[in-house]
Amino acid sequence: MGLRDRLAEALKGAMKAREADRLSTLRLINAAIKDRDIAARGPGDEDGAQRAGVPDEEILSILAKMIRQRQESARAYEEGGRLELAEKELAEIRVIEDFLPRQMTADEVEAAIEAAIAELGAGSIRDMGRVMAHLKARHAGQMDFAAAGARVKARLA
Known about the structure:
72% helix; 7 helices
């Protein structure tokens, strides 16, 4: 079952179970995916031609971005003393994480970085873009690429 199908099933389940918070988050996810689908259309696609939409890898990057946004918001709310809003953001993160693959441990991330560097023969900071593209292609949704980028940069420097 594809990611879109899993999201659709979860949306139906949340409606039937009357889980308002979960339903709200799932609708936000669907809206973000539809926005990306629309942005991905070419100028000649408005004639009603059916498209499959963005691939699952791009949906995973959308979900990862949504999680980062909510983590930043939760942090800001906590600093501002708005704990109820921070908790709402954290609850949304838990719903979004249900659709992401298992996150890699720090050791697994380090091993993936070493393998990518070795496979590509990267030796300098100029190769960082190739290494990051390789990691994103192989481990979409499984690691925090901002943190991985810092590790790759330190390794290649």
